[in-house]
Amino acid sequence: MEKRGFLALVIFVVMLSSVSSADSSSVIAAYGEGYLENINGLLVLHLKGSPYEMGYQHGTLLKEQVQENGQRYLYDFIIGNWGYSYEYLLDSSNMMEPYIPQEYKEEMQGLAEGANVSYTDLLILHTHLDVIRSGLGAVRSGGQGLGSSKAVPQFLCSNFVALDSATADGNVYHGLNLDWTLESGIQENALVIVYEPDNGNAFVSVSWAGLMGALTGMNGHGVSLGQMVSDTTDQTLNGMPHMFMIRKVLQYSDNLNDAVTIISQTSRTAGWNIMLGGPADARALEISDNHVKVFIPGDSAESIPPYSSSINNALRRTNHYTDPGLQALQAAYYEVSYPQPFLTYLLESDSWLRYDKLRELIEGNYGNINPGKAMQFLQTSPVSAAETLHSVVFAPGSREFWVANAKGSVPAHQQEYIYLSLSSLLGELPGDVDGNCVVNIFDLAAVGLCYGCSSTQECWSNCEQADVKPDGVINIFDLATVGINYGRSC
């Protein structure tokens, strides 16, 4: 690198380090190694230790919110509004409990005792998605199930990942809307949970008070995850509840292959589409009780015009399968013949409209996608929905993310997106190249000496530590990370 160019970058970094930003976060409460803080109006719960300890911290620090969510969501909404009986929900949950890892049962027990709520209530809350899906399937297939009087919730979730040449800077961006219901009021106790378990990886879950399973999250290795319902007759209650399977993926995956293996080897329940992002790649999984189909970005298996189409260096999913074999099972769920009239029905569905809109957005902004564009995609109809509980953009390479939560009757995509860094939440010090707990001129020099080196070059063995904004290349973003944190210490 020319000396003049590097000098200009040094001046840039020094100027950047002189810009101060107000820290609007504050610790609200603490218990043991857990604590609760407010970051720009967003509650962030930090949990650390054994399963029971993390559960007890959760329950103690958010006792009122946990109790309120249990009453609002379980008793007033699922039972009172949707009409499910407690007995039916518990009997169904008990079928699934043997498949729940022991550590998660212990954490639920700690949560129950810390918040002074019933363990069985928590068990139902963590299994109800699978139970409801199974019951609806029984109704549709003519079984006894729940009975036709039960309400049928809408499923409108959307996920996409863009990477490499599809993005403005070559990084991976994973955007998702989790759509469920705003009627229960669970969104009033939305939060982000930062887990540092004794076993497995540290990870973050975008969640709600009282839920220690996961639906949306990212771990310390930059594995991000979002999920969407995809109906099928291939379902059972003899499997691990969906929330716990997602939790297991986040806690124990070091890379995308680990995540795929965990999902493939888990005793699954109902039908879902799962989107996985990583620091440099992505996967889409279409799953049911007995089937797992894995797709890579630009996968030719997704190109079946006019019913699905692949995009180079991108993936997107909504609430239908693209795999023909799983589509046939989905057609059976809706009691229509396959391939016709199901495929005609598919092209008229909201799921297809969102899936195709994401294609239009990705292709129309190809090469220019960044976090801001990703948020715009999530805010664009019909990808946006009236029942969006949370809207999130992950940048797995840098472990940054942006979270918007619904408030009252206003869906998440109409709310402010709050910026968070998993590295910062874990108390790490980005920019500390030499690991001496202070960011200084030596770290700046280390990045400068390696500037331009990438993971495909021989220099990488000596320069990997300088990739402080880990994306496989030493560039201006690494210098900027040093600049932002210049002078800080552990």
Distinctive features:
single chain; 490 residues; 6-stranded antiparallel sheet; 16 helices; 16 strands; 36% helix; globular
Task: Note down, in words, how this protein is organized.
- With about 500 residues, this protein is α+β, with helices and mostly antiparallel strands.
- Among the domains are: about 160-230 and about 240-425, Penicillin V Acylase, Chain A (4-Layer Sandwich); about 430-485, Dockerin domain (Type 1 dockerin domain, Orthogonal Bundle), CATH 1.10.1330.10.
- Helix content is about 35%, strand content about 20%.
- The chain has 16 helices and 16 strands.
- The strands form two sheets. The protein has a ten-stranded mixed sheet, covered by helices on one side.
- Helix 1 (about 5-20) packs parallel to helix 16.
- The longest helix has 22 residues, at about 120-140.
- The chain is globular and about 65 Å long.
- The chain starts with a helix and ends in a 5-residue tail after the last helix.
- Residues about 20-25 and about 135-150 have low confidence and may be disordered.
